[in-house]
Design brief:
Blueprint lengths: L14 E2 L9 H7 L1 H7 L1 E4 L17 E2 L2 E4 L5 H19 L8 E2 L2 E2 L2 H10 L3 H7 L2 H7 L5 H22 L11 H6 L7 H10 L1 H5 L7 E3 L2 E3 L1 H4 L14 E7 L5 E7 L13 E3 L6 E3 L18 H12 L7 E2 L4 E2 H16 L8 H12 L7 E9 H4 L16 H4 L30 E5 L4 E5 L6 E9 L2 E6 L4 H11 L1 H6 L13 H6 L5 E5 L4 E4 L4 E6 L3 E8 L4 H15 L7 H13 L6 H28 L3 E4 L6 E2 L6 E2 L2 E5 L31 E2 L1 H10 L7 E5 L3 H14 L1 H11 L8 H10 L7 H25 L5 E2 L1 H13 L7 H17 L7 H12 L4 E2 L4 H11 L10 H12 L8 H29 L6 H13 L4 H9 L2 H23 L11 H11 L7 H24 L8 H5 L4 H4 L3 H10 L26 H25 L6 E2 L4 E2 L3 E4 L6 E3 L24 H11 L7 H25 L6 H16 ...
Parallel strand pairs: 1-2, 24-29, 30-31, 34-36
Antiparallel strand pairs: 2-21, 3-14, 4-13, 4-15, 5-6, 7-8, 9-10, 11-12, 15-16, 16-23, 17-22, 18-21, 18-23, 19-20, 19-22, 25-26, 27-28, 27-29, 32-33, 34-35, 37-38
Helix pairs in contact: 3-12, 6-7, 21-22, 21-24, 22-23, 22-24, 26-27, 28-29, 30-31, 32-33, 33-35, 33-36, 34-35, 36-37, 37-38, 38-43, 44-45, 45-46
Length: 1391
């Protein structure tokens, strides 16, 4: 969305408070402030307290009809966007499609700004060819360059590009000159033939990389090549269909398809047929050129009907303010205005800060979606309604006050004052000679404009809230108009006199952003605002107020008025009055010895000479071009040129109707809406001023008899009047000659003052103003000279004031006393100041200069710099001092620039500049060093080394001194960090070497080195390499853990891979449970600061082959001992078994490795051929095939660690076992005790291995077949051995039970687990069963719920029941180890 610039408050205008004496003559006072006022465009005048006129009109009788203003339409920026959006919307509406404003990055896209920027980049095709969409996205303020670029291109192609193609007269790259349009009027509208020609060349164009230039009506048109993006049918080769489209004369599109032998999927909307709403012509949607982006939902029109629509699209809408339907009295409007402001701001109208109102007003003007409308009683004619001052125009019953009725500041009297030129205009022109009244409400506004004919204007605030004014002087007028043309180009193209409409404004922020000097004034009640010629001004009302304004013309306006007419001719602005007529009337009055102000006569005489010269030149040019018929005429009414609308008076040209004079489109004048009709009709087309007639005669072939030169004033008459006028100016010319020759007469100031007094009759002329100013300056200079040479004290001056005074005195046409002595004093002061600039200035010389300065007759402020120079000399050693950092050096530099002495002496300034350059160089080094330090990437030390070397040795050790002087923190840090990084690299090379008994470096040392690298800010590339190797090693270890270690395992990976120690082998089940609870990582988190070089040495104990063999023997012996102990328990009475350490009962099963017996109620059998208990199962016992890939991967890691060594030893142990197995199998045919012992040992060794392989199973089968009794276990007394084929008898629900299992974990639902009747199970798989719940085996399960749901297992039917469903007491169940349900009891009793 378009975002206007933020409002900025312009600087204020001057405010004048004239004295009672100055206030007596308005035009004289305004002439005295004219020089400054012209620089600002407007000034504010605050009258003396004695001026307090009462508002003369009655609040009820004064009635008016205000204008309605929609605030958002005032701004040129919003209106051009609204107009453009309206045109695009109407274009698509004519195509039957409702326009929807697209969004980009969740913001509405401003189509006008988007279209304008694309056109400035060369148009859609140019942007696409040059790939400018990303650049365009950034210029529009979007964050994502790549993401927004494609979206912008799609939106333009879909919405705006068809609009450009269909209105070529508006698209810059399709502009047809007016000459071609006038010659070939049918070229633009003959679009069917154009598109046929384009489509006949489609296939040829597909093979060419550069599109051909087409010709339309003799004009090159590159836009046809762009149409290929929107033509009907596939455009690319290989799509299967080659389209052919012909458009008939009536615009109906007929499409033919030629098969190419290939199939193609039907295009979207290919079968949709459109019917023209106007003529009924039908066309397939796929054949419409340019293509439509959706099916029209409303009325669609064909090309033929579009021909009548496009001209209305090109035509700009006229804009003006509507009159309100209601007529208000002043009291009624005041009530409405106060109520509006109260409701809008929610506060009493007079309690709202004016700055808040101002910011809100400009926000509203830039709000393109704003709907706020206010009313403004503007241009109310005092001629009809009366004036706020007492005047002859006021209706009966109005206030009468003789004093203010005749007061010179009464706006009714000011335009016709004695020294005003307007008094010689016949009739009362509203707004010019007669005031206009303005009744404003909050936010009502007037747009940027100049006064008619660039006259002066004055505005008086009668009562109410402040009016805010903004102004630009005539020196900034062209800059302001340039900004208007750029911001409102479309409006300017159709309204060249846009600046005179007073309907289009621009925010001060836009103008200030474009470097236009504007100023601001706040006009309060009782204050005047005066605008100067060609001073642009605009503003708005902060609330209810009443103002009155009128124009006036001092004599100096006459010259400016001629400049205004030149401008009016260009913009075709009609004239309010004829300046020629005005000047001629003034001249006739003066020539007839009537009383005319001398200054008016003087300037009128100069303007008469200009008129004569102009008339002679223009009439001579006409006579050279053609010999027209000359006729004498007498003008009775205002007559205007038919082209430029200039008022003609002395002579004009009338073309006969028979010559068929035709005006070009840019010459035709249209009266814009929004103006108050002043009864002035526009000029006739065949009546032209002399200048426009010359232009037409040069371009048109006209016969002499068809041209009439109508003469109102002959040249001779003008010359005669000028000569008569010159006689009346004899006194003024004599006075002017005396002024010019006064210097030669060697007169005095008193003589010059006498001349000033003699010329008071010409007080409004520039000559008189210059003489008066010279006298005032001379008086001030004389007073100062007297003060210097005749006073006991030394007056204080600046050197510049003294120099200016002496220079000004030299320009006086007279000589003042003691001027030579003043000049000598200035020379001595200059000598002192010049010596301050010497390179060898020192403290002693400064003392001498101070003594010389004291000898002067006045004290020059600049001489105080000598004291400053002494401070500088004392301060200079600081430039060579060493500083703790850049900030301290910057403070010293700022301190130096605050000392005025440096600006005087070039040598000192050069030293300061060199210090500043050194500081800037140190800052650049510091910034570069900071970038290196803040870099997150691993550093290439070659770049840093080069930077450090350049920093140290560049320019003959210059930078070493620079570093020592400023000590830039990041440079110091970089040097320190660089040393630390190199020290780390040395440690890497020193300690990360293969261990003595290993071919690879240690992982332990690598981790410690990485820990040390965390302290580095500069990370060498080797850190990344080392980190990658460590990560690979750790990933390998994690893979190994996943293969071997079960969740919640009591054993570490190291303990699993190594043979069991006797201590671990003898652990009880209770000990193993305790290990599970406290099993945590044993890795120590060592702080990097605690790592010493000695700690980097790898001291990992290496377990050689001999030691591992010993550990294997110890493990085997320990297992044999455990087996023997467990076998002895079978022979003893009351022995305890299992993890519960209870006597043998029910069904039990033995562990094949340790020989311990376990209750099936406590532990679940694995149903494997080999049964291992919880004490003997330490890992997942993966298959050997799962381990081999890890060994292969280990070779590429390049680091040594314990786990890899232990895995290798385990694999070697497995391989050794497989070798022994093969030997045993080969000798197993002999049934001997020796083979039995060997087989038993080998079988136990296989069970001790933490990996599984097929050979272990084969060995089990072989032993079982050879020695069947070896696996025939006798259970303890009182127990029976568990049958491997039956479900284990236990009081827990088994996974294979026929009861349904819940798919979700009950614990995740915050439900309690079931009560456990028997001792806690140690089997990990049982933990999962505890979490199951569901209906029990009872006939009618009651589905109990709660924190604990207790179950019981029937030993006979092998089914699970809720205790609640069986009405069983949990205590009774605990006392009964062989529980039988009630159903089984009934069946047993019956049997």
């Amino acid at each position: 969305m378009w975002k206007p610039p933020k409002f900025r408050k312009p600087p204020p205008v001057p405010v004048y408070e004239p004295t009672e004496e100055e206030f007596k003559d308005p035009l004289a006072f305004i002439s005295s402030i004219r020089a400054e006022g012209e620089r600002y465009g407007i000034v504010k005048i605050r009258p003396p307290p004695s001026f307090n006129p009462t508002f003369a009109l009655d609040m009820e009788d004064f009635r008016f009809r205000p204008r309605r203003q929609r605030i958002s339409e005032l701004s040129a920026c919003t209106r051009v966007r609204q107009n453009f959006l309206d045109k695009v919307s109407r274009f698509w509406e004519f195509q039957g499609i409702a326009l929807k404003i697209p969004r980009v990055e969740n913001e509405l896209l401003c189509l006008f700004t988007f279209h304008d920027k694309v056109q400035k980049l060369g148009g859609f095709v140019k942007c696409s060819e040059d790939r400018k969409w990303g650049e365009l996205a950034l210029s529009l303020g979007f964050a994502s360059k790549s993401g927004s670029a494609s979206a912008l291109r799609g939106h333009y192609e879909r919405i705006l590009y068809p609009f450009d193609v269909n209105r070529p007269i508006l698209a810059e790259d399709l502009y047809l000159t007016k000459q071609n349009l006038s010659v070939n009027k049918g070229s633009f509208y003959n679009l069917p033939q154009v598109i046929n020609q384009y489509l006949r060349n489609i296939q040829g164009d597909m093979e060419e990389s550069k599109p051909e230039t087409k010709i339309i009506g003799g004009v090159e048109n590159k836009e046809l090549a762009k149409l290929k993006l929107f033509g009907a049918g596939p455009k690319m080769q290989g799509l299967g269909i080659s389209p052919t489209l012909e458009i008939t004369d009536n615009g109906r599109a007929m499409r033919k398809r030629e098969s190419t032998g290939k199939t193609d999927s039907p295009r979207k909307h290919a079968d949709v047929t459109l019917r023209c709403e106007k003529c009924g012509a039908q066309c397939a949607m796929s054949d419409v050129v340019p293509k439509l982006f959706e099916v029209p939902k409303d009325k669609w029109h064909c090309w033929s009907c579009m021909k009548a629509f496009i001209p209305s699209l090109l035509k700009s809408e006229k804009f003006g303010f509507e009159q309100s339907e209601r007529e208000y009295s002043l009291r009624e409007f005041a009530e409405r205005a106060d109520e509006f402001k109260r409701e809008y701001f929610g506060l009493p109208p007079h309690n709202i800060d004016i700055d808040r109102v101002e910011e809100e007003f400009w926000r509203l003007t830039d709000d393109i979606e704003g709907e706020l409308t206010v009313e403004y009683g503007a241009d109310i004619q005092a001629l009809e309604k009366g004036s706020g001052f007492c005047s002859r125009f006021n209706p009966p019953g109005s206030l009468e006050d003789k004093h203010y009725k005749d007061h010179p500041w009464n706006l009714v009297n000011l335009p016709v004052a004695k020294k005003s030129v307007l008094q010689y205009i016949d009739g009362d022109i509203s707004g010019v000679k007669v005031p206009w009244l303005y009744v404003g409400m909050c936010f009502s506004a007037f747009a940027w404009h100049t006064e008619d004919h660039w006259t002066y204007s004055i505005n008086y605030h009668h009562f109410g809230e402040p009016k805010i004014w903004y102004a630009a002087s005539r020196f900034a007028a062209e800059d302001l108009e340039r900004v208007y043309r750029n911001e409102a180009k479309d409006l300017y193209n159709h309204n060249r006199d846009l600046m005179h409409h007073i309907t289009t404004t621009l925010s001060p922020a836009v103008l200030l952003e474009n470097n236009v000097e504007i100023y601001r004034a706040v006009q309060n009640p009782g204050e005047f605002i005066v605008t100067f010629p060609r001073g642009y001004h605009a503003g708005f009302n902060s609330g209810l107020n009443m103002n009155e304004a009128v124009n006036f013309c001092p004599p100096d306006w006459i010259t400016i008025g001629r400049q205004a007419l030149k401008n009016y001719r260009v913009v075709q602005r009609y004239n309010i009055f004829s300046q020629d007529e005005l000047i001629l009337k003034i001249s006739q009055e003066a020539a007839n010895n009537n009383s005319v102000e001398g200054s008016i006569v003087t300037l009128a005489h100069q303007d008469m000479k200009f008129m004569i010269e102009r008339e002679v030149n223009e009439r001579n040019q006409i006579m050279k071009l053609i010999r027209p018929k000359i006729a004498k005429t007498r003008l009775k009414n205002d007559t205007y040129c038919g082209i430029c609308q200039t008022a003609v008076f002395c002579a004009y040209v009338v073309f006969d109707r028979r010559c068929n004079l035709k005006l070009e489109s840019d010459e035709i004048y249209e009266v814009a809406e929004g103006f108050v009709d002043q009864g002035i009709e526009k000029g006739r087309d065949n009546l032209l001023c002399l200048l426009c007639a010359i232009s037409k005669l040069e371009t048109c072939d006209v016969k002499p008899q068809h041209v009439n030169l109508m003469v109102h004033w002959e040249i001779s008459e003008l010359e005669e009047l000028t000569s008569r006028l010159k006689k009346t100016l004899a006194d003024y010319e004599d006075w002017e000659v005396k002024i010019e020759n006064f210097h030669e007469d060697n007169g005095t100031l008193e003589d010059f003052k006498e001349l000033l007094e003699a010329g008071k009759y010409y007080d409004t002329t520039r000559m008189y103003q210059n003489v008066r100013q010279t006298v005032e300056e001379a008086e001030k200079a004389r007073v100062l000279i007297e003060e210097v040479f005749n006073s006991n004290s030394r007056p204080i001056l600046t050197h510049n004031d003294l120099s200016t005074l002496v220079d000004r005195i030299k320009t006086f046409p007279f000589t003042l006393e003691k001027t030579g002595m003043l000049t000598e004093q200035l020379r001595r002061a200059n000598s002192i100041l010049d010596e301050l600039k010497y390179d060898d200035l020192n403290f002693k010389i400064c003392e001498n200069l101070i003594n010389r300065e004291r000898s002067l007759l006045f004290e020059i402020v600049d001489m105080r710099l000598i004291r400053e120079m002494q401070k500088v000399i004392r301060w200079l050693p600081k430039l060579s001092s060493n500083y703790k950092g850049l900030d301290e050096a910057q403070k010293v530099l700022e301190e130096a620039y605050n000392m005025p002495g440096f600006e005087i002496n070039n040598a000192f300034m050069q030293r300061l500049k060199r210090f500043e350059a050194d500081l800037e160089q140190a800052r650049r080094y510091n910034t570069q060093a900071q970038e290196y330090l803040n870099s997150t990437d691993h550093t290439n030390f070659v770049t840093i080394d080069c930077f450090v070397e350049n920093m140290r040795f560049e320019g003959k050790a210059y930078d070493i001194v620079l570093m020592r002087q400023f000590s830039p923190q990041y440079c110091v840090d970089l040097s320190r960090e660089r040393k630390a990084s190199y020290a780390w690299k040395e440690k890497l090379e020193k300690y990360l070497v293969p261990a003595p008994d290993c071919d690879e470096p240690s992982l332990q040392t690598a981790n410690k080195l990485l820990k040390l690298s965390e302290k580095l800010q500069l990370h060498p590339i080797e850190v990344g390499d080392l980190h990658e190797r460590v990560e690979r090693a750790e990933e390998w270890i994690e893979k190994l853990k996943k293969i071997f270690i079960k969740k919640g395992c009591a054993w570490s990976l190291k303990e699993v891979l190594l043979p069991r120690t006797p201590e671990n082998a003898s652990l009880t089940v209770k000990d193993i449970k305790e290990r599970k609870k406290r099993n945590k990582s044993t890795d120590d988190d060592i702080d990097a600061d605690d790592i010493t070089d000695d700690m980097l040495i790898d001291r990992t104990a290496r377990k050689g082959p001999c030691k591992l063999q010993a550990m294997e023997k110890q493990e085997l012996e320990a297992i044999k001992n455990i087996r023997a102990d467990n076998k002895k328990k079978l022979e003893c009475e009351n022995s305890t078994y299992c993890s519960c350490q209870r006597v043998a009962k029910s069904t039990m099963f033995p562990c094949d490795l340790c020989g311990e017996w376990y209750h099936t109620l406590c532990h679940r059998r694995s149903l494997q051929k080999v049964e291992l208990c919880i004490r003997c199962v330490r890992s997942r016992r993966p298959n050997l095939n799962q381990v081999y890939p890890l060994l292969t991967e280990l070779a590429s890691i390049g680091l040594h660690f314990e786990e890899s060594e232990y895995l290798q030893s385990l694999i070697e142990r497995v391989i050794s076992w497989q070798t022994n197995y093969k030997c045993l199998i080969s000798n197993l045919s002999r049934n001997s005790e020796r083979n039995l012992a060997r087989a038993t040992n080998l079988y136990l060794e296989g069970l001790l291995l933490e990996v599984s392989c097929d050979d272990q199973t084969f060995l089990y089968e072989a032993i079982k077949e050879k020695w069947p009794d070896m696996f025939m276990h006798e259970p303890p007394e009182g127990a029976s051995i568990c049958d491997e084929t039956k479900t284990p008898n236990r009081k827990r629900r088994d996974k294979d039970a026929d009861l349904p299992r819940r798919l979700q974990n009950p614990r995740k639902k915050n439900k309690g687990t079931r009560a456990q009747i028997e001792p806690e199970s140690d089997n990990e798989d049982d933990d999962e069963d505890v979490e199951d719940d569901g209906p029990c085996a009872a006939g009618q399960c009651k589905r109990p719920d709660g924190n604990k749901v207790e179950w019981v297992y029937c030993e006979r039917c092998a089914k699970w029941y809720h205790m609640f469903c069986l009405n069983v007491n949990p205590k009774d169940v605990r006392d009964d180890p062989d529980f039988v349900c009630s159903n089984c009891q009934i069946i047993h009793a019956a049997s």
